[in-house]
Design a protein that fits this description.
The chain has six helices and four strands, in the order ααβαβαβαβα. The protein is α/β, with parallel strands linked by helices.
Amino acid sequence: HNQTDAADPHVWSSAKNAVLFSQNMLNAVVELDVENADLYRANFEKLTQKIAETDSALTRLLKDIPTRSFIVYHPALAYLARDYNLTQHSIEFEGKNPSPAQMKELVDLAKAENIKIVFVQQEFDIKNSEVIAREIGATSHTINPLAYEWDEELIRIAQLLASQEK
């Protein structure tokens, strides 16, 4: 199923969201500690430059990928999908493992959309992901959207999407 509604808590999967959060944090700390406002603003400028570089890299990598849809075990990449015109389909259904009927539906969808990549977060069981990948002739990759270096992980995910076969 797709998950792109406003209630999606996985906000860190978007470089565009990161700029907004950073601006909000800057405003809050400057209000609390006016004396160090220049330091906070300088750090904010460095951070927004890094975020802009990440966004540019993602845009470049995802511009001409062969398939704009992917499967992920837990639907944590909806904002990444939104920002770069991708479609995320999740294996997990309402926080639970899928039923056999849901697995078949996802396999059929993946074949129809020519999906060639399946992601699974490192904290989840890989069994269903491997089954689906095998059924559709896709590659399966472990990802960590919760990585401390979130920008590097998003770029790695984009590189994997860009490297998939047609």
